[in-house]
Every structure is written in structure tokens, then in C-alpha cells.
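hey so i finally got around to running the thing on that chain from the lab meeting. sorry it took forever, my laptop kept dying and i had to restart like 3 times. anyway pasting the input first so we r on the same page abt which one it is
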Amino acid sequence: MDALGGLLDGPRAQGAFLIKAVLGPPWALEVADEAPLAVFTVLAGTAWLRHPALGGPDRLGTGDTVVVRGPQPYEVADSPDRAPTLFIGPGGVCRDAAGRHLAEAMSLGVRTWGNDPAGPTTLLTGAYGQDGSLGSVGARLLRALPPVLVLRRADWDSPLVPLLAAELGRDEPGQEAVLDRLLDLLLITALRTWFARPAAAAPAWYAANADPVVGRALQLLHHNPAHPWTVARLAAATGVSRAALARRFTELVGEPPMAFLTGWRLALAADLLRDPEATIGAVARQVGYGS
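ok and heres what got predicted. didnt touch it at all, straight out
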């Protein structure tokens, strides 16, 4: 399991906030929900994104997807200079400028919300909770992300978006679990697409996966952290000398193999210990420690 896979195996979205917003002009949202990570897609129409990390307002078209690393607030509006009139706080609570709650007044059905049921703009939004559901593995990934990234439809047209949109409208048993898993998949495929871009500053451990030697070493460490690894054993498994592996690994990943393994084991252990039935001894053995 690598850091991307960590979002799908183990700690993951649990009761994530997911909603479809149908909006007609004029409208402007200030999102200050303090979520550690959020994803939204323009299902129909256009919108303007304002984020401190951007040079200015960014126009979004139908099919564009945005990933935002919290907790910094951002704004989405129907025009680049529209002042916010709707304010989204922690837990997805929406208020107007006077502080009045709008959940009931703007409800348009199952997980659907907005100011106009026939509005030309539809946004699909998913946000991970503040309960630490991303875990320590997810936190390693989070630190590697820019504050905001935008994927244009021309670069990435995921079949997961219509699946997620369709599931949002269903009020059936198990819906929450399905939505959580679809959000995880949407996020992981979006990040994989982003990191593959030549201009993207992918984290060193991600870029190093393309190297035939270091990539193999990372796979071995990620998928079998409990093995009694040494540099010598890792070098033998990858077909190079100890010196060559240590030099190449440190150069591409930014730290020696055993230092990387220690950090990875501790991140996994921290996530495993979130299970109230887990014992320290059992977790230690799972990640490669005898005690």
C-alpha cells in the first residue's frame, strides 16, 4: 500500500460531506468548512474560483475538477468579482450574510441544495471530515499537495463523476458507504492524473516510482513493511549493490531507504492504532517491530 492507496485501504472517507448544488445568478459561496481536503466538479454551466494560492479568479467550465487542501477558505461564484452571499462553515452548515441557517430554505431534494432548481450551474462537492479520517498515511499525501489544483475536462474526463452524481440522488440503504468509496476513487484518480503532468511538482516518492530500481524498492517497502528489511536485502531484491541502491534511493526520494521505511512504518502504525480493538503488540508486529 502506498500513500495514494492509503486513501482506499484503511483510513478513508467516513461519512464525508457530499452534496450537489444547483445555482442561478447571482450567487457566490465562501467555503470555510475547515475540511482537510475537498473535491468539487462543475457538472453543468460555469463558475469562478477564487483562492489565495491562485494569481486571480480562475474560470471553471463544465467537467473541470478542483482539489483544495484545507483549511484555507476559498470562494466560488458566478462572476469573478461577486462578493460572497452564502457562507459554508464546518460540517457543511450554510448561512447567509445575516447568519441565518439556509439548510431547509435551500433544500432541493436528496443531498441537493441551491437557490434555483432550474439554475444553469451545478456543482458536485465532496469534503473529507475533520475527524482525522485521512489518517497518518493520508496526511503524508496531503503535505505533498499544492493548496489548490485544477484539472480541466480536456485533460481528465472521469466516468466516476456521473456515477457519483447519480448516487447523490438516491435515497437507498448503503448510500453513505457508496458515496464515501466513490469520493475516494474520484480523489485518487484526480491526483494520479495531476501527478503525471510534466509541470506538476509530484512528491519525490511518487516520481521515484518510475525508476526501475527505486520504484521496485518502494513497492517492496510499501507492500511488505513487516519484512526484516536491510539495505543489503533490499539491494538483493532489486538486483543492484547496496551502495548503488542507497545512493540512488536517497537521490530520488530525498532520504535513505531505512529512514523512509521507518517513517512509513510509523505512519501505518498510527493508522492501525485508530482501531479501538488493536493492541500495540499486534500493530508492532504488523509493521515490522518485534516489540
